[in-house]
Write a structure and sequence with these properties.
There is one protein chain. This protein is α/β, with parallel strands linked by helices and 944 residues long. It has a 7-stranded mixed beta sheet. Helix 9 (267-280) crosses helix 16. The N and C termini lie far apart (58 Å).
Length: 944
């Protein structure tokens, strides 16, 4: 039987689809598909892209992934993939794949920051890496080095990196690009519930009556979840209701029953309006509220996470930039804000708001208030006020917008209607991102529509393991695994015990977050940086500053990469890295589902896994070099722990590799080969580059052929890591279980996953902590002792309250964005919003190398309202300059595209390195979460 490639692909796809649907397959089609797949080995894996966590099936032959299809047994995607998901294989085989270490060398063979890249051996690469690290570590101490981590790490990679930085180098300067996407959600969870990650799960999509998206373009960003929403809507069109709230029209609006276009930053006002309506309509679920919640608030004068104005001036920031930066310390209260802030009673229109609580922990401070205070706080947010403030489409009438707001309140308040609120970057990338996260819980908690099947506020994750590796593992500057915090001495002690390092090893000072690492490099406080699974010089706002810092200042930048993206090109050393299915790994998705996969193939050339680079670099440090006394810049002294190390059986001449990754119990308990590595279908052993080396015989970091560590290092790290959460509400199953199932949602207790947390009917921890007869227990332990006060502030004489098993209902005011064009007198009269498109992933480093995806979307466009284009004398596809106070880029305008902005707003995706939109973006952050607001900046637009 013979057929061409096109017919073969069509046949195999049809057979796969029919199998998934349970449809009878014609024998000739089945035979043709089987013949074409001769010699293929199939195995389950997880999609490389977004946080949905779709299951896929991979076929391999002759050390190459030859086919990808949706996993019909995956409960997440049920056999379907989005357009990116189907190209999981092709991202691995781009023509310019990096396969050899590259170091900047002059003609004498010496490192020179201004020299071109030249191929070097792994040993030469690590030698230079070590030399540069120790130079800066000895000059600046543990705070002078840093790692840019990732929500795209495998869990074992992230865990290994945290151990190296925090237990080895005694630094806390590791922060993931998840800081860019999910940090505000984390703070919202912490502040409200005392524990991270959603209470609900994807099952809510089918169980609810109402889906409300807030700044979440699910149709393009989480298309498989949107397909489930679409299916639920089409199956029950009269009952199921969909609302899309956004600052511009996107593809979600095509399905939505109602679209609400609001002015950027005014989601805060809308949420307060809904809270007010809940009170005025007597829709509060008082039984739930009295048993399970308290009311709380915090300071309003917290700044915008901008650079300290004095430091910015010292560094030579331009006068244009300073126009915004000064608002970090002082801003003028607008008439709109005067109404929003009136319950506090401190500021009126025209007053200068001095940001007295913009430093350190002050933005986090919050306290209990009375219900009467809360009622007073939301009272100014009337329909008339909020509609006037929030209407985002100039062409929509005020009455139409009011009707939509009323309908939105109707949906939330209806006692017979279940509601799920979804959000992504529209909430999180926000100068008040933590506040708006808190406020969506406020609405759900007031109604008692939380932590129930079909009812809940649900944060959707952007990256494949922003939950599993960034949040759960704790690859943030302030965290340790399983919600432990570096600033908490009890938590440090737990980590030190599990890691078997001396007490006092872990640095108690929170490290530099993602953007602060860039700022610290600009100030010369950090001079050595290692980038993992990440593209910081393309994905960080105000990029011109960081590009200049990388190439002109005294520092050394190492980038682990697969392709020569922006960050690789500004680096001093590039390490070629194995990609997703060229290594063993695990991800954690947005519904707390942890999923593992086996290594399928061996990487090309001399590329090696990230985990290997971490472990090999650890061989370069003796304990006596890092566990000695260190004096930190703020005066903190890290004690010499070598004597305790000796008492624990360690020799100061031992390396960090010996202590962190090559422990005797690892070798004893996790031998390689392991039966779990056998393919379920063929019985063949899957490769494990780290454990046994591979057929390439790569010459490793010591100049010898790498033959493997001789044990199952990924399994050893997993089994150690899971100990952090066992018995503490973060329970994970054992390594072998995950190889056999399609993921489990934690906490996994007695082999059973948890769908809805905090609910005694589903969560064993809720049953453990709930009072007799009560249905809920919000058992998260963090921030559960707070002060009492009123809307003006905490009052010492009122003492403190203790809140075991309770959640907090926050009041947070609406405030105007620091670059709102409405208040701009310098010609920056457009809002700029950034985002993604269906075809491309983040910075495009992988997807722009897939021909089909590239052809579908070859460049980033500037989406613009046609009326704005006409007013500027522009036509579709004209090249324009988009200029902010920080920089400018050129892009072609699109007036008829999938994204349809209202007048006064443009949207530019950020996947295209040729249109490096982050040169234009404002590096303002939420002062609590430190997450950058990529959704709002003031720009001017003119023809190029």
């Amino acid at each position: 039987m013979s057929m061409n490639r096109r017919d073969f692909l069509k046949t195999t796809a049809a057979v796969a689809a029919a199998s998934a649907a349970g449809i009878a397959i014609p024998e000739d089609a089945k035979a043709a598909a089987e013949a074409g797949q001769e010699g293929w080995q199939w195995d389950k894996a997880v999609c490389r892209f977004c946080g949905t966590g779709c299951g896929i099936m991979l076929a391999t032959k002759d050390n190459k992934v030859v086919a990808v299809k949706g996993d019909p047994y995956s409960p997440v995607n049920r056999g379907i993939n989005c357009i990116k998901g189907y190209f999981n294989a092709k991202i691995m085989y781009g023509a310019d794949r990096l396969t050899q270490p590259l170091l900047r060398l002059n003609d004498k063979g010496e490192f020179d920051k201004n020299a071109p890249f030249r191929p070097v051996s792994w040993k030469r690469a690590f030698d230079e890496m070590e030399r540069q690290f120790k130079k800066y570590y000895n000059e600046l101490g543990p705070t002078g080095v840093a790692i840019f981590g990732s929500g795209q790490y495998t869990i074992q990679e992230g865990y290994a990196a945290v151990k190296l930085v925090k237990a080895g180098w005694r630094s806390n300067n590791i922060d993931p690009n998840a800081r860019h996407c999910m940090a505000s959600a984390v703070v919202g969870f912490y502040q409200t519930f005392g524990i991270d990650e959603p209470a609900g799960c994807y099952d809510d999509i089918e169980l609810t009556d109402t889906v409300i998206t807030w700044g979440a373009n699910m149709a393009e960003m989480h298309p498989i979840l949107w397909s489930r929403v679409s299916d639920a809507k089409l199956n029950n069109p009269d009952k199921y209701y969909v609302v899309n709230l956004s600052t511009y029209r996107n593809r979600c609006s095509n399905l939505a029953d109602m679209e609400i276009i609001f002015r950027p930053n005014t989601d805060l006002a809308i949420m307060n309006y809904i809270a007010r309506e809940i009170l005025h309509r007597n829709a509060v679920n008082w039984d739930f509220v009295k048993k399970h919640t308290v009311f709380a608030t915090g300071h309003a004068d917290i700044g915008y996470g901008l650079r300290d104005p004095k430091k910015a001036k010292e560094l030579g920031y331009s006068a244009k930039e300073m126009q915004t930066i000064v608002k970090q310390d002082v801003k003028v209260v607008t008439p709109e804000e005067a109404v929003a802030l009136s319950p506090i009673g401190k500021w009126k229109a025209g007053d200068e708001m001095v940001m007295k609580h913009n430093k350190g922990k002050a933005p986090f401070w919050h306290w209990e208030i009375s219900f009467e205070d809360f009622k007073k706080a939301v009272e100014p947010y009337t329909l008339d006020y909020v509609a006037k403030v929030a209407k985002g489409d100039k062409n929509e009438s005020l009455e139409s917008f009011k009707r939509k707001l009323q309908k939105l309140a109707d949906l939330y308040c209806d006692p017979n209607r279940k509601v799920v609120s979804f959000w992504t970057m529209g909430f999180n990338q926000h100068v008040r991102g933590s506040w708006i996260n808190e406020l969506v819980y406020t609405v759900h908690l007031l109604l008692g529509k939380q932590a129930e099947p079909g009812n809940g506020a649900f944060s959707l994750t952007g990256q494949p393991s922003a939950c599993g590796t960034a949040r759960e593992v704790g690859t943030f500057a302030h965290r340790l695994p399983a919600d432990l915090l570096v600033a908490n001495p009890k938590h440090r002690k737990i980590a030190e015990k599990l890691w078997k390092v001396p007490h006092g090893t872990i640095n108690p000072k929170v490290g530099s977050h993602f953007l602060k690492i860039m700022r610290d490099m600009e100030e010369g406080k950090i001079k050595w940086v290692w980038v993992h699974v990440n593209n910081p010089w393309q994905n960080t706002a105000n990029a011109n500053h960081w590009l200049k810092t990388a190439r002109t200042m005294d520092n050394f930048i190492v980038v682990n990469e697969c392709y020569p993206g922006v960050s690789a090109r500004v680096a001093d050393l590039i390490l070629p890295i194995a990609m997703i299915y060229e290594k063993w790994g695990a991800y954690g998705n947005a519904e707390r589902r942890t999923q593992h996969w086996r290594q399928q193939v061996v990487a090309p050339g001399n590329a090696m896994p990230d985990l290997w680079t971490i472990a090999e670099f650890a061989k370069r440090f003796k304990l006596k070099e890092v566990w000695k006394e260190h004096k930190l810049p703020d005066g903190t002294v890290l004690p010499d722990v070598l004597e305790e190390a000796k008492a624990m059986g360690y020799d100061p001449e031992m390396t960090l590799f010996d202590v962190l990754y090559n422990r005797p119990e690892y070798r004893q308990n996790f031998p390689w080969p392991d039966p779990i590595a056998k393919n379920p279908g063929t019985g063949k052993m899957h490769p494990n580059t780290e454990a046994e080396g591979d057929f390439r015989n790569v010459v490793g970091s010591d100049g010898k052929v790498f033959k493997g560590y001789g044990f199952f290092i990924q399994k050893a790290l997993w089994e150690e890591y899971r100990k952090f959460g066992l018995g503490h509400g973060h329970d994970l199953a054992d390594f072998d279980t995950y190889q056999k199932v399609r993921g489990l949602r934690w906490p996994v207790v007695n082999g059973k996953e948890t769908k809805w947390r905090f609910n005694v009917n589903y969560d064993p921890y809720a049953r453990k902590y709930a009072k007799p007869g009560e249905k809920f227990a919000f058992y998260g332990p963090l921030l559960k002792t707070i002060k009492r006060g009123n809307l003006q502030g905490p009052i010492a004489s009122m003492g403190k309250c203790h809140l075991p098993n309770k959640a907090k209902i926050f009041w947070r005011p609406f405030m105007v964005h620091p670059e709102d064009p409405k208040y701009d007198n310098n010609g920056y009269n457009f809002w700029l919003c950034t985002g993604r498109v269906l075809e491309h992933w983040h910075t495009g480093t992988m997807t722009m190398r897939v021909p089909e995806l590239y052809r579908a979307m070859p460049e980033a466009l500037c989406y613009m309202n046609p009326e704005d284009a006409k007013a500027l004398g522009l036509q579709r596809f004209d090249l324009v300059v988009v200029e902010s106070r920080r920089g400018k880029v050129k892009a072609r305008i699109e007036t008829r595209g999938r994204n349809k902005p209202p007048r006064g707003l443009v949207m530019i995706p950020w996947f295209d390195e040729k249109i490096l939109v982050n040169k234009v973006c404002l590096d303002a952050t939420c002062p609590l979460s430190k997450e950058t607001d990529y959704k709002k900046a003031a720009v001017k637009i003119y023809k190029a």
